[in-house]
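During the first year of the project, the team set up a workflow for recording each protein of interest as an amino acid sequence followed immediately by a discrete structure-token representation. This format lets reviewers and collaborators read both layers of information side by side without switching files. As required by the reporting guidelines, we include two representative entries from the current panel. The first entry is reproduced here exactly as it appears in our internal archive.
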Amino acid sequence: MKTAGESPLGTSGTCLVLLFIVLVGAALRFYDIGADPLSISDGFSLWYADRSWTEIFSWIPSWDPHPPLHNTVLKVWTLLGQNEITIRSLSAIFGILTIPCIYFLGRTIGGPSDGAWIGLGAALLFAVSPLHIEFAREPRYPMMQTLIVAFTLCAAAWLMRNRWAACAPLLGFRTRLSQSGRHDLAAEDPWSARWAWMAVIAGATLSVWLHNVSVFFLASVALAMLIWLAGPLRWNRDFLTNSLLASLIVVLLWSPFLHILWAQSTSLTDQLWLQAPTLWDIAWQVRTWFGANHVHFTSLFVLGGAALAGTWWVARHSGWSYVFLLVGVAGGPIVLSLLISYTFKPIFFYRTMIWVTVPYFILVAAAACFLKRAWLRIALLAGLSAILLTGSVRFYSEHDNQPWDQIVGLIAKETEPRAVVFLLPAAIELPFAYNLQKLPLDVTTITLPGPFPALDFPNAYPTDVTAGPAIAQEDLVRVRELSAGQSPVWLVVWRRDLYDPEEILLNALLQERTLSLTKNFESNIDEISVYRFE
């Protein structure tokens, strides 16, 4: 019977188990991925992918507070097709690739005796996580960001496990002679040091080109490395030189975007829609990250308790340096995000930092290493994974995407040729037009308050949403002009509480026309209202 200090299945068996976990993760992410109609989020991604390279790298970042990396990759990816399956599968693939990265991260931190247990356990937890399955089906940046974070942490942890590589002169590109005249790296492979440092530099650079809050991730890793430098490394000059050199390279590679980032920080801060988080907001988002989304609240205590136990195990058997790295990346960005939110501008939002769960899964899986027998470890990891898998099953049963196909179908069934359809806000034209092209329907669509993206409007819109301003009284003149002599007239409103909180558009149409049909389409996150006027 296997005991605590032994690898669970040997090298070949471990590879087979990892392959099985990857296949499970792939099946959960690709299951029925094209069934839901195109949503607003999907529409945004398709719209970005259709822009020119100049627009992606200059114009879009001037009003959309994200670097251009994801839009660049997505533009290339959509050469394979522009449909529900293709547009969502990119994130699913990023999520699948993250699974082996998490395995190697856990294996590195656990060491030769327990690393396979931690790696396989963490990979399984991530593979069945409802939070990551949910975002693996959305064509936005979070899963690409998670993959980059996991990859970068693998390289950083490997350097910490192999001090000779971390302290190799000039990132491993120069060897140093010892007093005997022999190279002090003769017994090691300098190429390993070079590849590890290049991996850290590549991951760090890609992360900041993907999302601005990635600087919090890099700050957390840098702090952990500084603690390691001050402690076990005793201020080793070669490692300090390597760290400074790597940081300089990252800044240089990031520098073409820095002027856009500065413009965003000065001009877009007043347009972001986020509000300062309340204690309830913080608690809900922490639960979403660490308490297993779509699972009962009590799971937070079970998984949290396992993470605490795993933290203690890592501290005792691998060293506190790894604890500072994992806990720092799991908690540091949250603290920094809250600090910025309360002192400068609210930026605290769970979507932007789902990657903080990567080190969390490592710590949860490490709790199994306290158990003496292999079957007990397997039972514990299986039980923790079952909690998350239950949430994933619930996600599939409760998930209800925006039914834009039904909305367009209703208008097609109940309208006459050349009808006018007003869309508020302008962004809903993206999924509406996509579904409209599938039907032989001749209607005129008019976006309000202006064409998407609705930028530079003089109105002081109450919601301050970049590219999605709310309707205002002065916009009613345009509505009356465009609807004069037309019948029927349709109005489709998404999130009326944001974009027409006083219902001024609806009341204006009611004063001049007769309401003949009203239907509300509800999803699990919002509501879309459809009106027909004669």
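The second entry, processed by the same pipeline in the following quarter, appears below.
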Amino acid sequence: MSRRALAALLAVALLVAAAALYPWRFSGDGLSGRFGRHLAGAYGLDLAVAGRTTIALLPVPRMKLDGVTIADRGGAEVLRDAQLRVELRILPLLAGRLEPSEVSVNGGRIAIDLGPVLPGQPDVSVQAVRNTVEGASRRGLRRLIVTGADLDLRRGDGTGSARLKEVNLVLAWPGPGSRLDFAGSASWRGEAVGASLRVERPLALLAGGSEQVDAKLTGRLVDVLASGTASLTEPVLFSGLLTVGTPSIGGFARWVGAPWSGPDLDRPLSVAGDAVASRRSVDWSQLRMKLGADSLDGALSVRGGEAPSARATLAADRLDLGWLKPSLARAVGSWSNGRWSPELASIGLDLRLSASDLRMGPLSLKDSASSLLVAGQRIDLSLLRGELEGGAVKGRLSTALVEGTRTELKAQFSADGLDAASVLVAAGYPAFLSGKATASGTFEASCGRNRSLLRQLSGRATLTLGRGDVSGLDLAGAMRQPEPRLSPPAAPRAGRTPFDRGQVAFSLGNGVAEVLEGSLEGSGIRASLQGRVSLPDRFVSLRASGTNPADAVSGRGGTVVVDINGPLHAPVTLSSVETAPAEDGGRPASTR
């Protein structure tokens, strides 16, 4: 070949290569129309291109379309205002067909209608995905890439919707017999989350069989890991290892919009075990739960839908619930002021809990069994058994919202053989009282909204004490002190009053506890108690009167009177002595 012929051939080759490398732009609908006809025939999608179409042949045949809108056969938009980058299969291209091997979606908004959920029938979205994936497999679409798009998920029947922003994903499927791999990220309610999925045989799964799947969802507030067998047909959609966790219960609750969130709930929670999942339920027959530093074992069942609910039976060697005290205090404050949170009761709950050592701050309940039931507008909390400071305790609290406007409360408790001093110390109070205590009581209240529940509280309670003493109060010494003595809250108190038996009976009405009977008996003292305690106002007004039995028999001595008045957290005491009658029959002398 001559030099001129070789040079001409090289020039032609360079021109062809340059033409193949150069991106050719078209403003008409010729190329986009041919590609649109392929989408309509293969996937039932209608393509509209508002911008330009660009095509290049090297290094791989590719096409770019600007201002793309894609709609389904019903006219509903699936993709809007996006840019499409399409890599074309070479052999169909040589035959004049534009068939994609890879599609990239940049920007825009993707809308997916999952279809209505019909009882007893397969999900419409499953059938749509099955048809689309099978069609893509037959036509050689190996990869789908999405960058910087927004995704709207909704159901046509209005049962749910979600919007994901900044969606980035890669879906790779080399061939019909190959494994499917998916990885992606998005932002939901201001939090970035990532997801991955691996399916060994996608076509077998779409055909109704069971296949091995591995899935993961990660984010700042949630971690989900699933590894097992999956099926797209009812009743079982997944069976295998399922782990769900969050570093902050309160943070997760605020993220998903749950009403029971608060800074005191910001502690980690994780659930792991073999699970079975259906369309609207997840059941762990055996699980390990980590709550903060504590571990629990048992079973858990979660139901979704219009009436979400959870049922759990859990056991722990040690469980510290002291972090719940602020939430309980807020709940008690809301109920006492007549404010009810119906959103909390909108979630059904059946929790059975047992613990060898259940702690609520300094209080320690041994060998306890309790239950919490939430159904409709009713909450029942029961302590079936428990050992507290050497004694046995049990009780029940029930609250309900009646006809949406009226709150009702009922409570009862009993305790036997408690060490009174240890209970007071564990509850954060000074150990001013000792002895073995037996107590019981029943209470109830009913009031409308914006009214104090405590001011409507009524009931009865009794407290009986065995051999012990009252610290900081020396009734025998006070009888020998003729002058009145004022003891302010900050003043140090000395002395003690031993007794063999003590008893107090209260009657509660409109939130005020009235002492029906109060007595204290010992070898050197006999005392009685009168007065009242206002729970809504947190105010106490009591009077204790004591005598020496031996002096009473001989006609000598006097009666010591102790008045206790003021706020519950800091009352003021005033003691005085009424002397015995004089021997000449005159009127008794008194120091008051």
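For the second entry, the following points were noted during internal review. The chain is about 15% helix and 50% strand. The longest strand covers residues 406-419. Both points are flagged for discussion at the upcoming steering committee meeting.
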